[in-house]
Amino acid sequence: PSELSLIEAYFLLENEMITIFDVKKNKFLTSKEFFEIGQQIHHKFEEKYIIYKDLRQKGYIPRPGLKFGADFVVYKKGPGLEHSPFIAHVLPHDSKISATDIVRAGRLATSVRKKFVIANPLTASYYFFEWFKP
């Protein structure tokens, strides 16, 4: 059986690849209705979705990254087919991240042989961090 995150489900619904039926209301949900539900129950839903959609459009496969302390684990081919090359943390434009948090995330990413990426949903741009040894 397949398991979809809210963000994955919204992406598929928005692209008319699936339908979502609300059994309590006895009707199919529109993408707008599902988006509103996502915003109510998922922290940073819109920001994460912007990055998720951008990564998918670039050919990557983003999966939930909670076990790595990030928003997404990003694959080129898919889970089970390869190790993911990077983990991504979505940082909304009005958020802050401390130097300690960057080092912590970078060390975690390095320990699991991945690159740490901060994703900016306002511009759909990505900032990669790598350890530098002089």
Characterization of the model:
34% of the residues lie in helices and 21% in strands. With 134 residues, the protein is an alpha+beta fold. It folds into 2 domains: 1-42, no CATH class; 50-134, Trna Endonuclease, Chain: A, domain 1, CATH 3.40.1350. It starts with 5 loop residues before the first helix and ends in a 5-residue tail after the last strand. Residues 45-119 form the tRNA intron endonuclease catalytic domain.
Query: Helicity range of the residues?
Result: 25-40%
Sheet with most strands: 5 strands, mixed
- Strand neighbour order, sheet with most strands: 3-4-5-6-7
Task: Please indicate the percent range of residues in DSSP E strands (runs of 2 or more).
Answer: 15-25%
Number of DSSP E strands:
7
Low-pLDDT runs = none
The structural class is: alpha+beta
Number of helices: 4
Amino- and carboxy-terminal Cα gap: 48 Å
Mean pLDDT: 89
Radius of gyration: 16 Å
Query: What is the CATH class designation of the largest domain?
Result: Alpha Beta
Overall 3D form: globular
Q: What's the number of domains?
A: 2
- In N-to-C order, the SSE pattern is HEEHHEEEHEE
* CATH topology call of the largest domain: Trna Endonuclease, Chain: A, domain 1
The second-level CATH architecture of the largest domain is 3-Layer(aba) Sandwich
